[in-house]
Amino acid sequence: DAGVTQSPTHLIKTRGQQVTLRCSPKSGHDTVSWYQQALGQGPQFIFQYYEEEERQRGNFPDRFSGHQFPNYSSELNVNALLLGDSALYLCASRAGADTQYFGPGTRLTVL
Amino acid sequence: KQEVTQIPAALSVPEGENLVLNCSFTDSAIYNLQWFRQDPGKGLTSLLLIQSSQREQTSGRLNASLDKSSGRSTLYIAASQPGDSATYLCAVRGNFNKFYFGSGTKLNVKP
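^ inputs. structure came back:
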């Protein structure tokens, strides 16, 4: 079992650009959540997908959007990038009420 | 809105000491609480998950307790080792499947 995987590992973008991050959940998991972790802070919940729909959303603007595919993999899209979007983006998957498993993250740098 | 606080923010101890990390949350209506370990620049590794109906969980040298009514959890690490050096994060799963993290405790165990 490969666990939760994310791509790419690192990404550098400039202000105003758009970015897409990808996540493959752990085998057997159907729920995927995305988090933003700024340096020195705890992860902040962005949104959660289940059955290809956004089920819950944290306090993030509409520039942050996502998608879940039939195979449960997910994408996070961020439009009109700001310097403040620079962070580690973490994906987590789970099945039901079980433990969340996190991927290694994608480090996004916005210049 | 759920607020999760972790004290202390940083801790440095000599090898072999027993130590306690604290986590508090403002809304006691939680489904579970999870402790994670995060190494620098890496994703999160789940250590212990405590369901709201449970009082504690143990795994090896780690013991986590939960007092839901008072909004507190502690992570006890016995006989600390340099390999335990990392940031420890607690997270609560609240209503509507939203997850809230603390900012973490950065632990340094000196040889």
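The mean pLDDT of chain B is 94. Chain B touches chain A through 25 residues (CB under 8 Å).
thumbs up if we can close this ticket
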